[in-house]
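Handout, section B. The chain below has 285 residues.
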Amino acid sequence: MKEIIITSLLLWIYIPIFAQDVVDVHNTNDYVKAIEEQKESLMCEDDVPSKNNCGAKLRESNFHLGLDIQTKYVWRGIEMLSEDSAPVLFPGINYQWQGLYVYAMGGYAINGKYAEVDMGISYTWKGLTVGFNDYYYPTLSAKQDEYFTGGKRTGHWLEACATYTPEKVPIWLTISNFFYGYDKDRAYDGDGNEISAKQAYSTYFEIGTYYDFLDNNRISLAVGVTPSKSCYSDYQKKMALCNIDLKYSYNVKFKSGWTVPLSTEFIYNPVFDKPYINFIVNLAF
């Protein structure tokens, strides 16, 4: 009886002390989480400075890096590198904050026959993304270029675009328009000299759907149409179905938690009656 009384007294003293150390821990998962947070807190205090070199509190970066690799660069049904074709690398950096997305991306063929520099900004709200993009294609054979000094004959392609992706319906709708820049419907004389160049305002509509599997693997189908003479039909047809894209995406997962998306797509452009097969690797950091 004496031993029971002593044991009860010890428990009565120990339990409140333990409860003070693990306040609001009501189950095993919460307890483990609390311990992990304490460890992270201790690690932050002991090993990582709490402020950066400017005196601001350290936080997770909103900047991200990426590198995409494509064996055949086809965009909205357009074969971007038709001669001396080669795989293209797309290095990029982006900034993400809530619905805001700002990026800069390059495109470079491994044989040196193609170059592209893109920049853009977009904002997403409740499934609707509205953005502006600038596509530019630097010179390949000369050191001098006209990125800021092109004037009316600029090589920039400025685009406004919008995409709507409903949360509960597996579709997306995209509309885009090149409202300024090099997108011109040109006319030439018998000697091949340019006699006129009118802004074409190339427009592209796309509707797509998808089906998800485990581990975020996905199969998707997209169909694109241009409603008037445009770059998508080589300025030849007033209206044309220009892109049919069937894609399967597979995520390779590593033990570290890193995921590498891989994709293979079959693309068909009815305007030119031409098919393509493209393999894509997406690396994100």
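Note. The chain has a mean pLDDT of 85. Compare this with the example in section A.
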